[in-house]
Amino acid sequence: MLFRLSDIYKSYSGNEILRGVSFQVNPMEKIGLVGRNGAGKTTIFRLITEEEAPDSGEIFKLNKLKIGLL
Hints:
Mean pLDDT: 93
Distance between the termini: 22 Å
Order of helices and strands: EEHE
Helix content: 10-25%
Number of strands: 3
Low-confidence stretches: none
């Protein structure tokens, strides 16, 4: 496993953006995040890259893992 999000919650000013999000990415897998504006795509990316911290839940990431955004 490269990284895993487990039961992630995140809100801004009382507005819940992510509720109980869980998924993992294994070696050689590629993923895409698709959704409407405000669905939490950028928030998930910021959590994975440690720009922000979740309100609750756990994020596991291999050391020196590089993540990119296209």
